[in-house]
Write a structure and sequence with these properties.
Elements: E1 4-7, E2 10-13, E3 18-24, E4 32-38, E5 45-50, E6 56-58, E7 66-71, E8 76-81, E9 90-97, E10 106-107, E11 111-116
């Protein structure tokens, strides 16, 4: 069974940085990985994704500020968040899928990020 566990959330002032981590319980070198977020009253949105081959994609709202990267040796995916804004406040979730043609089938429990103004 694939399990994901996020860490690294917290409270930070606007302009600050946080790094989220997501540990995956199985070797995931051929998995696609992603970070999503959700705020109360809003739908979940994709923040960033990284394919097995390393190609990345970002939501327009975070381009140039966030970086997703993976360490296949440690089965961990990261989200480096810089220049944080209050509108980045959300619950952040990591997700995985074992094929680019599948839906995101594996999810973590989430970690909360709060950016104060």
């Amino acid at each position: 069974q694939v399990q994901l566990e996020e860490s690294g959330g917290g409270l930070v002032q606007a302009g600050g940085s946080l790094r989220l981590s997501c540990a995956v319980s199985v070797p995931f070198s051929y998995y696609s990985l992603g970070w999503f977020r959700r705020t109360p009253g809003k739908q979940r949105e994709v923040v960033a994704t990284i394919a097995a081959g390393g190609s990345t994609d970002y939501a327009d709202s975070v381009k140039g500020r966030f970086t997703i990267f993976r360490d296949n040796a440690k089965n961990t995916v990261f989200l480096q968040m810089n220049s944080l804004k209050p509108e980045d406040t959300a619950d952040y979730y990591c997700a995985a899928k074992n094929s680019p043609f599948n839906t995101w089938g594996y999810w973590g429990q989430g970690t909360q990020v709060t950016v104060s103004s």
